[in-house]
Amino acid sequence: MSGITDKIVLGLNTYWHCHKAMHRQFNVEKLRQVQNDKLRKLITYSFENIKYYRELFDKHGIVPGDISTVEDLVKIPVLTKEQIRERFWDFLPKNLPACRVSRTSGSTGVPVCMLSDKNSRIHNSAAVIRYRKSLGIPFIGTAIITPLKTKHEPQKSPHWTFLQGVHKTYYVNPYSSDTTELSHGQNIISKLKRPALIGITSAIRALAYRIQDGVLPPL
């Protein structure tokens, strides 16, 4: 399939998973059952296919059957970002599907590299649509303002997004004192009506300080 066709199919699959999630209401008991079923499958898969977890389980005398509920997770040592960076290749499964490479923002330290296949992107995007809807952000049409993550991040042009709902995202630099960038941010905030504010905590805090100081207009 062509690139555009792939994106359409990916979007339709995402919307369908989101629709099912929003219309599937489990009681607490059923939700815990589903969570624990998925947890057991994940533990078994990790033990059989991920080198890091096979070595970790063997070292601590853990077998998949020891982890049957969420409460059992305390038996597994906590994973750190440093371990992910140092042993990145040991976290890849034996049969790795085609993946997209991305990184964390690095706002709390060195960025961490992540891989996501098509299936994980579909489920993640469906979850994003669902929680945005619960916060009052409709599926279509709402403008989004996203403050840049760090002062070193280059300015980005506005663009439409379709995988996590149909929205146009605008970027504002909350760190810069450059008059051109400040004017750009002022114009964006002033022209948008009731935009949604989405971003990492540190960037939103920086934007709030700029608004509080009168450098940028209120949302």
From TrEMBL:
Family matches, as InterPro entries: ANL_N_sf, CapK_Type1_Caps_Biosynth
Name this polypeptide is given: AMP-dependent synthetase/ligase domain-containing protein
Species of provenance: marine sediment metagenome
